[in-house]
Write a structure and sequence with these properties.
This protein is of the alpha/beta class. Helices cover about 40% and strands about 20% of the residues. The protein contains seven helices and five strands. Helix 5 runs parallel beside helix 7 (about 165-184).
Length: about 180
Amino acid sequence: MPAKLDHIIIIDIEATCWEKNPPPHQESEIIEIGICTFDIASAKPLTKDSILVQPERSQVSEFCTQITTLTQTQVDQGIPFRDACAILQDKYLSQKRVWASYGEYDKNQFQKQCQSRHIPYPFSSNHLNIKTLFAIVQALPKATGMAGALEILNLPLEGTHHRGGDDAWNIARIFSHIILTARN
Ligand code: AMP
Ligand code: MG
């Protein structure tokens, strides 16, 4: 089936993490899914959303809170990963649309987590890597992080870095710049 080309869904996840390896019997899991819809006609970000997800096999470490600001108490009020995947499909039609993220990490983590829990993968195979796209468009010798890309474009980072919703929004602003430049 051809992709529905009205919006692109831009995704940025946050996950449990540690300074080094995970402690025994824990593994990195998605704790936030940031979702930004991007209007293809205008090449502008449209909506921003954040879904908090309860981890099942790990806990939010102090180190993780330092990076993301997310606490165990906050993610305890989230929803199960399976329900979050259902929202992506039902509300965002994530299997019918092109989706994008900054790098391959978000895609890899979704694939891994869906596989290990026997949850249907909520996305189409039509994935755009905006990190690589940005590096190519700018002829960078090496791909840069999201904050670095905003700096190159002289765009201020809006919201809180390492929060899924805000990261997805900022990635959409980078993507908007790429697309509008290409169309001019
Ligand atoms: P980001 O989208 O850049 O906020 O990163 C996504 C996830 O990658 C975070 O939620 C962490 O799980 C992990 N991460 C990001 N930066 C670091 C870091 N410096 N050390 C360990 N994990 C990190
Ligand atoms: Mg992030």
